[in-house]
Design a protein that fits this description.
By secondary structure, the chain is α/β, with parallel strands linked by helices. It folds into 2 domains: about 130 residues, Rossmann fold (3-Layer(aba) Sandwich), CATH 3.40.50; about 140 residues, 3-Layer(aba) Sandwich (Rossmann fold), CATH 3.40.50.2300. About 50% of the residues lie in helices and about 20% in strands. The protein contains 10 helices and 12 strands. Belongs to the bacterial solute-binding protein 2 family. Its main location: other.
Amino acid sequence: MKSYKLCSVLILSLLLVVTACSTGNSNNGESGSASAASDNKQGNAKSAKPDDNQSDKKLKIGLTVPTLGNPFFVAMSKGAKEVAAKYNAEVTVVSADQDLAKQTQQFEDFITQKVDLILLSPFDSKGIAAAVQQAKAAGIPVVALDGSAEGGIDSVVMSDNVQAGRLAGEYLAKRLNGKGNLVLIDGPPVSAVIDRIKGFNEVLANYPDIKVIANQNGEGNREKTLTLMENVLQANKQIDAVFCINDEEGVGVKIAQEQAGRSEEFFIVGVDGAPSASDALKEKKSYAATSAQFPNQMAIQGVELAMKVLKGEKVEPQVLIPTELITQDNVDSYKGW
């Protein structure tokens, strides 16, 4: 009997020891799992740091414009810099100085600098095609502003330039009562200018008694236009109206007109809504109207569109911003650039 009791005690003791060991192993397992989970979290946190740093990295945007001598492109560059801050981006703005070779070189510089995207306001829509192709081959998105470009751009944000030409043409034709001698000052070979002339000529086609007595290229430049307008004034005794593809040209015409003492003879219509045009309109003299663009808004929408391209999102190939006719009658309510 004693032997049986002793046996029972020994078996019970052994069971208690096994249970204790088993419980200890279970606790160690839980502790190990918690420790592993903690290590995994730390590991995940560590592996997330490069992504966080990536998001902190400033995006580099290159913007090239035909000339910073035109307030329009100055306003455009300001708009681009303002909206870029929203995306933690920095914008490098360069002027092509109305030189295709220089704008092409600027593209090459942007590629070397490894910018994340390029905003292009082209001086020559066709001539810049090869540079656009180079950027695209380097994996850099290209969004055009104020005029389309060949070579495979991702999109273009610009004014409705056909509308701008029509607004100017309709105002001019109405003021002339459908009859008179017209001087047309053209500009650089970019889509924006081509579209303005297209819209203007569409209207002019309805007025056969409005005669174009001179068609010159002022290259969008005030000084160039001043010089050529002096020659036009010498060659033509009677001018009734002048249409210019931008306000810089329009101001050049106005200066030539004043120097020749012919301010009362004809009126001037431009495009842009530039500060210089606003001032001239407020004088209520020969500067009669301008089809206003909004370069600041153009740049803002351009950057926003480019950010979508960077994210791989689909975008519209063309975004048009409506223009607005500003005259001596409504210039005081025009906010300008």
